[in-house]
Write a structure and sequence with these properties.
Helices cover 17% and strands 20% of the residues. The protein has a 4-stranded parallel β-sheet with strand order 3-2-1-7. The protein has helices at 13-24, 44-51, 66-71; strands at 6-9, 31-35, 74-78, 82-86, 91-94, 99-101, 104-107. 18% of the residues are buried. It has 3 helices and 7 strands; from the N terminus they run βαβααβββββ.
Length: 152
């Protein structure tokens, strides 16, 4: 077993906060964040609004600089999903075929937008996804009226 290893499943704001709070509270063991996202935790409101409108640089959407994770000794396992687990054996199964043992487990998976199978969204509709996958959004369409302040 991984003595003292905390595994956090979910690379969003909650997982990020949990990892850094453990360090603030004096936890000295291993901390691993497992995330299906391809990059470090990012701020979804910035991503879904300011970044898509081209008002902030890509680096601004991330919750912390990459160096913060290294200095806090927080391991990021990015681009890999948990496919199952054995809670009594304290291990997780990852989609890449590896296993990850833990002493404590935190689930911070957030939510994933549903995609309606019979609906193909227009090319200007983007669900929240990691920053590398999203182009900067064009301005609102003419006649958006009262919806324009909420764009995107």
């Amino acid at each position: 077993m991984a003595d003292g290893r905390v595994v956090i499943v979910g690379g969003g704001g909650v997982g990020d906060s949990a990892a850094f709070q453990l360090r603030t509270d004096g936890f000295d063991g291993e901390i691993v964040i497992v995330s299906g996202d391809s990059d470090r935790p990012y701020d979804r409101p910035y991503l879904s609004k300011e970044f898509l409108r081209g008002e902030v640089e890509r680096e601004k959407v991330f919750l912390r600089p990459e160096a913060d994770y290294e200095s806090a000794r927080i391991e990021l396992r990015q681009g890999v999903r948990v496919t199952g687990g054995d809670l009594s054996g304290r291990r997780l199964f990852l989609e890449d075929g590896s296993e990850l043992q833990f002493a404590s487990l935190a689930l911070a998976t957030g939510g994933t937008p549903w995609r309606l199978p019979a609906f193909s969204p227009p090319d200007y509709v983007y669900p929240p996804r990691p920053p590398p996958d999203i182009p900067v959004r064009p301005p609102p369409p003419p006649g958006a009226g009262a919806r324009a302040p909420a764009w995107p």
